[in-house]
Amino acid sequence: MVDSLLKKPFRKSNDNVNRIYHIINSRAAYQAAMGLGRTLPPVVGYALADLLSGLMSRMPHLALVRAVRLNQWIVHDRQVDSRQLDRLVRETLRSAARAVYDFAHWKDHPQVLKKVVRVEESFRQVAEKARRREHGVILALPHMTNPDLLGWVSAPLFGRLTAIAPNRLMEGYQVQNQLRRQVGIEVIPGSLEAVRTALARLREGEAVVFGVDRPYADSAFRPRFFGLPAALPVAHVRVALKLDLPIYVVGAALKEDKQISLWATEYRLHRLPNPQEEILVNAERVLEVVMDNIRQYPVQWNMTFPVWPDWMERVP
């Protein structure tokens, strides 16, 4: 029965697709996932995560599935066929589902977390700069591997961590943000006021996290990402240019030894006489660092929004 479900695509129904999408992103769904994750042992938790993600991957009209399919196609240089994309979508969703389980199951076990997450020296040095208030620390964060678990582990290293988030959050994200506050992460919805807050805290030597790979339709810039223009945020570059600070690009990957490695790469700004070109060039150079991480571990790129929506209809 389970095998037949995983092998047969679900029929399209707009009502059902919309209902499933809202259920997945609801407060109740996230709380249920966290509750199950806390109580189920790994062998059962991973099996359930694999089953649910496998079922979801067979719903081709679900917005989340279409987004992952598009993103993986572009990441693989538009060189993979439909069957290969089926596999990539399944593996990406499995990685994301297991990440939810890992966060729920291990977040309250600090001794185990030390074995699950390996914080590399490059990242520790960046956190120490913020803790000592040497200068403001701008972190550019892609959605790699398990952002929630990595935030849970790394936030205490900074003292206080401010995260600039999308200004429209679904219910599930609101629950996540409540959890993040427990370890000193303050999430501020993106706005002009949020940028002012970020500037003030950076001037005080604190650390501020900016997401760099989630599409932002209102962006005035279209930096090239995997060779194509994408509506991505550039606030991290604007702030860095204003304060003359480096940007630390966060990298992460679940390695073969089953440990998640967390590191940081320093990026120094490239100054140009044209302000618009200056923002665009630096945004693209930051994204080049992100691309290296994604290319090495493509199915660990946990991005479930379409980064290149104009290409959606061309996906196999």
TrEMBL record:
It is found in: Cell inner membrane. Keywords: Acyltransferase, Cell inner membrane, Cell membrane, Membrane, Transferase. One of its GO terms (molecular function) is acyltransferase activity. CDD domains: LPLAT_LABLAT-like. One of its GO terms (cellular component) is plasma membrane. GO terms for biological process: glycolipid biosynthetic process. It comes from the Bacteria. This is Acyltransferase.
